[in-house]
Amino acid sequence: MTRVLVIDDEGSILRALRINLTARKYEVVTASDGASGLGAMARARPDVLILDLGLPDMDGVDVIKGIRGWTSTPIIVLSAAGQESTKVAALDAGADDYVTKPFGMDELLARLRAAVRRASPGPDEPVVATEDFTVDLAAKRVARDGTDVRLTPTEWGLLEVLVRNRGRLVTQRQLLQEVWGEQYQTEGNYLRVYVAHLRRKLEPDPSRPRYLLTEPGMGYRFSCG
Amino acid sequence: MTRVLVIDDEGSILRALRINLTARKYEVVTASDGASGLGAMARARPDVLILDLGLPDMDGVDVIKGIRGWTSTPIIVLSAAGQESTKVAALDAGADDYVTKPFGMDELLARLRAAVRRASPGPDEPVVATEDFTVDLAAKRVARDGTDVRLTPTEWGLLEVLVRNRGRLVTQRQLLQEVWGEQYQTEGNYLRVYVAHLRRKLEPDPSRPRYLLTEPGMGYRFSCG
DNA sequence: ACCAGTGTTAACGTGGCGTCAAGATCACGG
DNA sequence: CCGTGATCTTGACGCCACGTTAACACTGGT
Fold this sequence. Notes:
- Two copies of one chain form a homodimer.
- A five-stranded parallel sheet of chain A has the order 2-1-3-4-5, with helices on both faces. In chain A, strands 6-7-8-9 form a four-stranded antiparallel sheet, with no helix packed on it. A three-stranded antiparallel sheet of chain A has the order 10-12-11.
- In chain A, strand 11 (212-215) and strand 12 form a beta hairpin.
- Helix content of chain A is 41%, strand content 22%.
- The first copy, chain A, starts with a strand and ends with a strand.
- Chain A has helices at 11-23, 34-44, 60-68, 84-93, 105-119, 153-164, 172-179, 188-202; strands spanning 3-7, 27-31, 48-52, 75-80, 97-101, 127-129, 133-136, 141-144, 147-148, 169-171, 212-215, 219-222.
- The mean pLDDT of chain A is 87.
- In chain A, helix 2 packs parallel to helix 3 (60-68) and helix 6 (153-164) crosses helix 8 (188-202).
- Chain A is elongated, with a radius of gyration of 19 Å.
- With 225 residues, chain A is of the alpha/beta class.
- The interface between A and B is medium-sized, with 31 and 30 residues.
- Chain A binds a DNA duplex (30 and 30 nucleotides) through residues 152-155, 187-196, 199, 207, 214, 216-217.
């Protein structure tokens, strides 16, 4: 089932979208401002995002940039008829499509289908393998030496973010925000504890990590080996 | 260079697109009806297609279907304002975007960029390469001779600013402000120390820098080699 | 030869990281 | 309703390395 995240502060639009999307067998998640929208994006992992530019708390273009920093999930922007420069800015920031209000529901649904279709030939390899263990993102399973490794929910959440961004450095703020939530962005302690847990369960030599690397002062990085 | 095929029977639009696209360094190929358009598609192998639905010889939706039979090249549909059902049909037939006439050229160009960006395999890797090392801005990673170079947060911050402004002179004030903060604008010492660090880690001959150049009295410049 | 701007080096204090372990909280079955 | 694990939170501590700083050497221009 395709999951859609709708970020919009207008109740009427939110309601209309929820009804229409649900009727067409989409799973709908909603948020009503930019900050919670970014959080929902990380938590719900939708297949496509419908984003209203006129949010109360953030500039819509900044929301797009924030999302494009770590995922290429399709973004369809919704906005009141306005300057052409706004469209250009949104599209150049990484939006995939731009629909002006008032819009026809059928058209939006068609654009939604187009966006999902485009993204579907998945660039996602759901299973990541190293020399010592494998991570199956779809099945949420980790195997080492042929047998499953038991991970707690928090451990898995942390590993998932790191593996999804494999090769890239993930800042502490981003990790805390995506695994624990908005308000935990300063609790650097959690990271140290849980990275240690993961290393003990996955690394061949936990004291000298090969995959879960620390970048002092900046964050952590999952190296594919 | 990105190659664009424009299929349109209106000379004025064709002309306007050709001028604007050429000015922006696109390679432009044109066709004025559906049949020759399909032929041009196969022959020219464009990176993106701009297709007017109102062609004299074929229904636009059939053109889209014909193309989608063998390639997933992005298609941006152009059409006179009309029924919503037409948009839906075009999008469901495999079009990627739909722009109604009259349209703003800037918006069309932005949608074009979005379509090309989406289609390109790696959504542009912001990797800057020199003969001696590479800097990956997204992954926050620097590699030299195939292996990663460890940079401290300050070193990375400094390098990032310089690389983002590659080729251009960056003043000391600007560097200090962006890496250390507003109130450090006079601490010229920091720059000398950390530029030295970077040169030791990156330059083939640190005493005679090739990439991290000093502009006496002004600031520093990153030269791509 | 002098000066201003620059490069180099080393010492010191602190912040961040890994580690451990004990309390708090939750989930589940008796 | 309580007990028992498992999981999550929180705090403490040692250690290393990063940032800061200062002292000194160098270079080109006048």
